[in-house]
Structure formats: structure tokens, C-alpha cells
Amino acid sequence: MSFNEEMKLFFSDSNMKKEIVKIKGIRKPQSPFNHVVKSGNFLFLSSQLSVDLKTDKILGGNITEQTRQALENIKFLLESSGATMNDILKVVIYMRDIKDFDRMNRIYRKYFLEGQEPARVTIQALSPIKDIDIEIEVIALLP
Fold it and tell me: Residue 132 is part of a domain; what is its CATH number?
């Protein structure tokens, strides 16, 4: 079987259908997106930032506070979906100012087991949301 045939078979699997994961206790975002989408055993999280998920209110703060809040949101969404931080396969971090990289990393590393960190890319990019300096998105595998 060729690689293309294998990929077609893999992605045509009925388990790979898109499913919106409803999380109790959080507010639906004002923008047109969902926080968590499941397909097969994969969880795709929209980028998280320094926001109170219960009220959808932006919290702001310095880079360490914003990083911590974004990661706490990710942890909450994953746990509410049946996964943990250890199940994250890939992380994409969008930072307004790359000069904050070391301060962000000091908080980030506390959320992962040393030697078991997920793949990651960090990109300098402006958030369209005022006073937001970091957004973090993840892909996780359900256990």
C-alpha cells in the first residue's frame, strides 16, 4: 500500500470526524471559534491567552502572569476533555515581544515533566487583542 493510500485510509476512518467539545462552566467566546475540537483521539485547542474562561474577560498582566493564565486555561480545557498537560504533542506560542522569551520559559517549564516536553515553536506576532502579549495553542492526544 502506498503512503497516499495509507493516509487516505487513516483520514477516512470514521473516528476522525470533527466533534466540538462542550466544556461546562465556561462562556462561549464572542468570536466565531470553539475552544476545543476533537477528531479521533486528537484534541485541537484554540490559542489560549490571559482570559477568564468563565466570564470571557481579558485579564492582561505582565508576561509571566499572562503565560501562567494561558497555561492554566489549557490545563483546564484538557482536563475537562479527558486529557492532561502530559498528553500535549505540539505547542505553538505567539509572543508580542521575543525579549520576554526567558521570562515566559520560566513559567512554561513548570507545566511539563522535564525530558517529556512537547514539540514547540515560538513565533513573534502581535495579538489582535489589546494588552495581550502571548497566545498559546496546543494539539493533544487523548490517553
Answer: 3.30.1330.40
pLDDT of residue 31: 86
Ranges under pLDDT 70 in the chain: 1-15
CA 90 to chain CA centroid, nearest Å: 9
Kindly state whether residue 8 falls inside one of the protein's structural domains.
no
Report how many domains make up the chain.
Answer: 1
Residue 93 neighbours by CB under 8 Å, 6+ apart: 104, 108, 120, 121, 122, 123, 134, 135, 136
Strands in the chain per DSSP E: 18-20, 36-39, 42-48, 51-52, 57-58, 88-95, 119-124, 134-141
Label the pairing between strands 88-95 and 119-124. parallel
Check residue 60 and give its pLDDT: 84
Contact yes or no for 92/123 (Cβ under 8 A) = yes
Residue at 80 is within a domain: yes
Name the helix (H) or strand (E) containing 114.
none
Q: How confident is the model at residue 27, as a pLDDT?
A: 87
Q: What are phi and psi of 109, to 5 degrees?
A: -60, -25
